[in-house]
Amino acid sequence: ETKISFNQMINELKKTNIIFIGEYHDKPDHHKIQLHIIKALHQSKIPIVIGLEMFASEYQNLLNKWVTGDIELKDFLEVYKNNWGYEWDLYKDIFIYARENNIPLIGLNVPRDIPQRVSRHGLSALTAEELKILPSDLQCEIESGISTEILKMVFKSHDKEDFISFCQAQMIWDKTMAKNIIEHLKSNPDNLMIVIAGIGHAFKKGIPYQIRRQSDFIYRVILPEEAHPVRNITNEFADYLIQ
User: Fold this and answer.
1) Rounded mean pLDDT of 117-127?
2) Cβ-contact 18, 177 below 8 angstroms
């Protein structure tokens, strides 16, 4: 591994289309890292947008209203709670910085009850209408033993009974978010999207793998240094580790 400065990393990131910054959702330091990178790129006059795992795409209009100042904080907090189960204070500084600097926020996810039901009961738990809004191929993909180990670790921590159903739920998340990222960038080719998402989605064999299968967009993955659930992180997982 090679150590570089924060500014060197930022200069390298300017040449990409997508930056994934992984997080453990409940770690304040991880969100400070995300904001630090967002600020550095914004101050470099790069046209950035922020892609959010924690918001379903159907809430895009309300995210737009937050950025433009057309929704009050108390009302937006209700929207936030409808989408995400973690404390607002963990993400507050990122949302406020986006609002103060008119940085678009992009909802990337599906309604959260859909993966939850699939994780418990498989794809048969979904209606025909729900299936229509999802990517067509949701078979459980395990690209390598590393992916298997990480998925099984996450699976164990979620205490699910059916690994295949859990894996299908992961596919819903990863493939839907990849699809929404690609669609946004095809419509807005000058933008650089910074995606903030859990480590299990942000590492190279999560959403980035789906991006690589469907597009030629250049991406980089940044993970917090402590994020080594299986073994020491190599470039199979991420491009940068940050303290």
Assistant:
1) 77
2) no
